[in-house]
Amino acid sequence: MPYLDRASFIDLLKRLGTETDADVLAAAREIHRRVEAAGANWDVLLARPPGAAAMARLEEYDDPDAETDVGAFEIRDRHHDHSLADLEPVPPRQAQLFADELKVIEALLARPALAIETRRELLDLRSDIVTNEFADMDRRYLRDLAARLNAS
C-alpha cells in the first residue's frame, strides 16, 4: 500500500488534533485520499476489539439459522431450569464495554450439547460482567474456550 506508510500516516493522524481547522480538514482529506488510493478501508486498517476474533470463529461454526437472542433459548441443567432472561440484567455500561464477550457467551450457551460444567463457567463469566469483575484474564479464558469448543 504505497500511501499508507506508517510514519507519514501517523503524522497525518497527529495533525487531526491541531488547533487550526484548515489543517485538520486538510489532514482528514489526505488520510481519506490515501486510504482510497491504497484500495483499503477502515475495517482493514483498524484492529478489531477484544473478543471479536472469537466471535467471528463462532459465527463460522454455529448454525446460521440459530437464534442467539437473550431470551431465545433455555439453559438446562440437572437441577434447575432457567433462561438467560431470568438472569440478572447486564447494566448498560457493562453491556457496552463487553458486548462482544456477551455475544460469545450467549452463542456458546445456545449449544444444546454443551457440558453442564462449561455452562456454569459461562454463567459465572456473565455474572462477572454484570458485577464489573470481568478482567483481561477472563477475556483470554473466554477466547480460548470458544476456540477449543469450535475446534472439536
Quick tags:
2 strands, 8 helices, 152 residues, mainly alpha, two-stranded antiparallel ribbon, 2 domains
Structure description:
With 152 residues, the chain is mostly helical. It folds into two domains: 6-45, no CATH class; 52-151, no CATH class. Helices cover 59% and strands 4% of the residues. It has eight helices and two strands, in the order ααααββαααα. A two-stranded antiparallel ribbon has the order 1-2. The chain is elongated and about 60 Å long. Residues 61-82 have low confidence and may be disordered.
Low-confidence stretches: 61-82
User: Given the helix and strand composition, which structural class is it?
Assistant: mainly alpha
Percentage of helical residues?
55-70%
Mind telling me the C-alpha Rg? 21 Å
Beta-strand content estimate: under 5%
Major β-sheet annotation: 2 strands, antiparallel
SSE order, as H and E?
Answer: HHHHEEHHHH
CA-to-CA gap between the ends? 38 Å
Number of strands: 2
Mean pLDDT: 77
General form: elongated
Overall tally of structural domains: 2
Oligomer: single chain
The total of helices stands at 8
